[in-house]
Amino acid sequence: MAITADAGYFSETNLMLFEDALLNPFVATKRMKHGEVLPPLRGRPPNDMTPKERMIRKLSTKRGQEIYSKRKSTVEPVFGQIKQARGLRQFSLRGYQNVSAEWQIWCLSHNLLKLYRNGGPF
After folding, report:
1. SS3 of 2, please?
2. Distance (Å, rounded) from C-alpha 99 to C-alpha 95?
């Protein structure tokens, strides 16, 4: 199963953890400008590449670009909508369980609003 993550999650340790969990990671190695695309690469990779160089190469393939580009249309817009449009800049509560419950309420209200605006199943 392919998994995508932004540059904040890139580390050799995380790559090993993903692979140990039988996940196929596609993790950005650096911040990229909006719309920036890596030039596609072809041919066999050299054997002496570092994990970071291998990930850069993996993201430069057509398949890598296709998988990573889906990230923009799946997860990222939701966080942007909750932060920007709904105004969540910090949590009101403290503690893991309280913040988790507050986050669930934010997500629930976000989803209900989406259903309402789109005519929902009601």
Report:
1. strand
2. 6
Sequence-distant (6+) residues with CB within 8 A of 114 are none
Q: From first to last of its 122 residues, what are the pLDDT tens digits of the chain? A: 888 888 888 999 999 998 888 889 999 888 877 777 777 777 788 889 999 999 999 988 888 888 888 876 666 677 778 888 788 888 888 999 999 999 999 889 888 888 888 886 66
Q: How many whole angstroms separate alpha carbon 102 and alpha carbon 106?
A: 6
Determine the Cα–Cα distance for residues 48 and 54; give it in Å rounded to an integer: 10
**Confidence (pTM):** 0.58
